[in-house]
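User: Structure with guanosine-5'-triphosphate, tokens only please.
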Amino acid sequence: MVTKKKAVYKRILLKLSGEALLGKQSSGVDPEVANFIAEEIKSLADLKVQICIVIGGGNIFRGLEASSKGMDRTSADYMGMLATVINSLALQSALEMRGIPTRVQSSIEMREIAEPFIQRKAIRHLEKGRIVIFAGGTGNPYFTTDTAASLRAMEINADVIMKATKVDGVYDSDPVKNKKAVMYKSISYIDVLTKNLKVMDATAISLCRDNNLPIVVFNMQKKGNIRRTICGEKIGTYVGG
Ligand code: GTP
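Assistant:
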């Protein structure tokens, strides 16, 4: 059911995992999933929320995994960053096919296909109702796309990071392996770090903690959940101070 409530946030950063785009495929982008995400975002139009998106690249290339198998870490991480650009373009295409104005800004300059990341321009795009997709991670090796999401959220003054996952929120143990795992309704940054809960990596969580930026972890595979989260329904886990 579509919630009729109003948005509790003015500006959000939506963090999607690359794996979410896999759908039924073993690699690459499943157009069905890209279309599902685009439809979910389209359905938010009446809320007038400013939206930016950071998407991972794990469906195409996992830098950390490749480096653990012997590839040079810096090269592997750059390959991962390029994978996020592919995903960003796929999502841009799915959104624009639905008439949603979108700009992709990349931290690694590739002007033929995306604007460079310029903080002031990104904010201007958001104010004009465009969705901004931040591609290329932070542009540096050794940082995850979760950290890129935290950094960009800070830079554009987002009210919240909405971290989309395959499960309903943050659990005390892996809910896929342990049927008795208990989901937290809310949890502090410090508990996420000390309990090693893998909401996002420690750098990303610390950045949010230092700047008091809340994170809501929620299940995006259920239709309407992005909207519910934006409207403040307590459907996932709230990570805060
Ligand atoms: P405003 O003028 O502020 O309304 O923003 P705008 O994005 O519509 O204007 P701009 O003239 O900057 O961009 C026009 C189009 O060109 C948009 O689709 C941009 O995404 C795109 N664009 C702007 N700069 C670049 C760039 O460096 N590389 C690429 N590939 N596209 C760009």
